[in-house]
């Protein structure tokens, strides 16, 4: 690990080299960090293009002497991935970071399985390959320093996002999940519902309708695994889905009540 006054270049190993892992690796490589990756599928060709060393074998990946191991696999695969991790091959205390879009679930699971000497930083970059394609300035980055003893490595990792201009937001994993159920999960649910309705641009779009089409398109770019993970592994999501259904019923009822009044000749229309 080479050092400078405030941050160091790190050796970062990425587990799960799908769309989001690839996206993050580009900026990390650009900043001078050394990136290795492993994944269920063989992404070795693409990795070479990105300047990332790819290991097909998890044991070799763990032996690669990383400062940081960053979990970037799907939410649904976390318990399976964690079971396949050969912690005994780690050569020194390592900072584990996860970037999953739910936070209590990885925190609890990782605290159960990580070696005592390994640090844990739970994070959620609140952006993706689309919203972050023109840079990360002013985009939100949530983090919870769950178990940190090596301050230098942790702050160098956080600096990757801070130095790109992200808005760094420290909070607990539980606080994150509560808010994300009302924001991100709701956004994805409405986007998916709009997709089920096959909404498309029309020649007479309003600007507001265009935002709905954009919402549908951007949520459908994320995998269904990701969306299901937001629901299955965030304990607050089920209630928000119920709230959404109840709200839709309320709106519908208000419209029906008004329709009945309008159509009932015994009720005055001057209200
Ligand atoms: N996309 C975003 O905008 C965004 C933003 C913030 C956080 N995140 C989080 O980042 C993570 C990755 O997201 P993503 O967009 O790349 O898509 P994703 O569909 O959530 O995850 C894809 C990744 O999970 C791996 N994976 C899936 N099933 C697996 C299994 N059964 N065993 C082992 N690995 C498995 C895939 O490996 P292979 O590619 O090798 O098949 C791939 O690396 C997720 O936890 C997501 O919540 C995503």
UniProtKB/TrEMBL annotation:
One Pfam entry name: TYRAAT1_C
The parts of the chain that form a coiled coil are 234-261
Fetch the InterPro entries from UniProt.
Answer: 6-PGluconate_DH-like_C_sf, NAD(P)-bd_dom_sf, PDH_N, Prephen_DH, TYRAAT1/2, TYRAAT2_C
Prephenate/arogenate dehydrogenase domain ranges (all copies) = 10-271
Give the keywords, sorted. Answer: Coiled coil, Oxidoreductase
The answer to keyword Oxidoreductase applying to this record is yes
Q: Which domain of life is it from?
A: Eukaryota
Give GO MF terms, alphabetically.
arogenate dehydrogenase (NADP+) activity; NAD+ binding; prephenate dehydrogenase (NAD+) activity; prephenate dehydrogenase (NADP+) activity
Q: Which GO terms describe its biological process?
A: tyrosine biosynthetic process
List the PANTHER family.
AROGENATE DEHYDROGENASE 1, CHLOROPLASTIC-LIKE, AROGENATE DEHYDROGENASE-RELATED
What name goes with this protein? Arogenate dehydrogenase
């Amino acid at each position: 690990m080479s050092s400078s006054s405030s941050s160091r270049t790190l050796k970062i190993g990425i587990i799960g080299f799908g769309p989001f892992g690839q996206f993050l690796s580009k900026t990390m490589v650009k900043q001078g960090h050394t990136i290795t990756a492993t994944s269920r599928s063989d992404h070795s060709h693409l990795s070479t293009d990105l300047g990332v060393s790819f290991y097909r074998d998890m044991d070799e990946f763990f032996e690669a002497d990383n400062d940081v191991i960053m979990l970037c696999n799907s939410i649904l695969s976390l318990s399976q991935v964690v079971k396949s991790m050969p912690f005994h091959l780690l050569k020194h205390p390592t900072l584990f970071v996860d970037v999953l879009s739910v936070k209590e679930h990885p925190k609890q699971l990782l605290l159960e399985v990580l070696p005592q000497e390994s640090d844990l930083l739970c994070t959620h970059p609140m952006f993706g390959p689309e919203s972050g394609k023109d840079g990360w300035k002013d985009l939100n980055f949530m983090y919870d320093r769950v178990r940190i003893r090596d301050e230098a490595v942790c702050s160098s990792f956080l600096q990757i996002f801070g130095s790109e201009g992200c808005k760094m937001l420290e909070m607990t994993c539980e606080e994150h999940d509560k808010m994300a159920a009302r924001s991100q999960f709701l956004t994805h649910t409405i986007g998916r519902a709009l997709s089920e309705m096959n909404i498309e641009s029309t020649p007479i779009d309003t600007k507001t309708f265009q935002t709905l089409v954009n919402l549908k398109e951007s949520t459908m770019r994320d995998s269904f695994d990701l969306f299901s993970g937001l629901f299955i592994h965030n304990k607050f999501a089920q209630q928000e889905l119920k709230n959404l259904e109840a709200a839709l019923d309320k709106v519908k009822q208000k419209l029906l009540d008004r329709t009945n009044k309008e159509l009932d000749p015994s009720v005055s229309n001057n209200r």
